[in-house]
Write a structure and sequence with these properties.
By secondary structure, the chain is an alpha+beta fold. It folds into 3 domains: about 70 residues, no CATH class; about 100 residues, Immunoglobulins (Immunoglobulin-like, Sandwich), CATH 2.60.40; about 55 residues. It is built from 8 helices and 8 strands; from the N terminus they run αααββαββββββαααα. Helix 2 packs parallel to helix 3 and helix 2 crosses helix 4. The radius of gyration is 27 Å and the shape is elongated. The termini are far apart.
């Protein structure tokens, strides 16, 4: 895989990449020599990473043996968690109806190629708001972008409207404005609740409205900080003002 990507680069790009890897005086090397040299460096990195993991596992085993001597038969499984994963992917999780949490990994080799070709490349999250969980452009209501840094790996995203479906793309953009979609999250639905979707029923039914207000107060005349309930009450107030203006 690494060799194929290196072969797709120009001589200038290969020299730039070799200098980033610490190679001195790259001018005398021809294209094939640079490809071989970069591939050797990449294989050494992989070997070093494997060696480091093996060393960590060995230290873990030594510690387990010492711990067994102290605590008898008790043994705790120890896992080595990598700092990043080789697959470029992004995940989107719901925190509450108004906030989501996105986290992602970019394959380091892929990232290296992007920065070699476009040292000033910009990265950002493109958040899509949709009406339903269906990959149909007609369902897209709009989108907005969140600029991120290349070293970022997670972000909290404010969801403008509960009751909608959201999806996020991780995108790179070069100085010419060319976009590249690095990965896309699965779709996530922010729950709106029945009353958010049917405010007129709540406004015209006094019993339901009293029951709803019971959840808005804690019984001591203090209003709850539930942002979804506050949103519903605000929509009811707007609806009431609209009705008055029409009269």
């Amino acid at each position: 895989m690494a060799e194929d990507i290196y072969k797709s680069l120009s001589l200038t790009e290969l020299r730039f990449l070799a200098e980033r890897e610490g190679v001195k005086n790259v001018d005398p090397y021809d294209r094939e020599e640079l490809i071989d040299l970069l591939e050797e460096i990449w294989e050494e990195k992989i070997a070093d990473r494997k060696l480091n993991n093996d060393i960590m596992r060995l230290k873990g085993k030594k510690y387990d043996i010492y711990r067994e001597d102290l605590k008898g038969t008790y043994r705790e499984t120890e896992y080595v968690i990598p700092e990043n994963y080789p697959k470029t992917s992004i995940q989107l999780l719901l925190r509450d109806p108004f906030w989501a949490y996105a986290y992602w990994d970019i394959n380091q080799f892929e990232l290296q190629v992007i920065l070699t070709r476009h040292p000033n490349a910009q990265f950002y999250l493109r958040v899509y708001e949709m009406t339903q969980c269906c990959a149909d452009p007609e369902n897209i209501l709009g989108s907005f972008d969140i600029p991120i840094k290349v070293e970022d790996s997670s972000w909290y995203i404010n969801l403008p409207n509960p009751g909608r479906v959201y999806q996020v793309d991780l995108i790179s953009e070069n100085v010419d404005g060319e976009l590249k979609q690095l990965c896309r999250s699965t779709m996530l639905e922010s729950p709106g609740g029945y009353w958010l979707n049917n405010p007129d029923e709540l406004r015209h039914n006094s019993d339901d409205f009293k029951l709803f207000l019971a959840g808005y107060s804690n019984g001591s005349d203090h209003m709850t900080a539930n942002i979804l309930i506050q949103r519903i009450l605000a929509d009811l107030e707007d609806s009431k003002q609209d009705s008055r203006s029409k009269e």
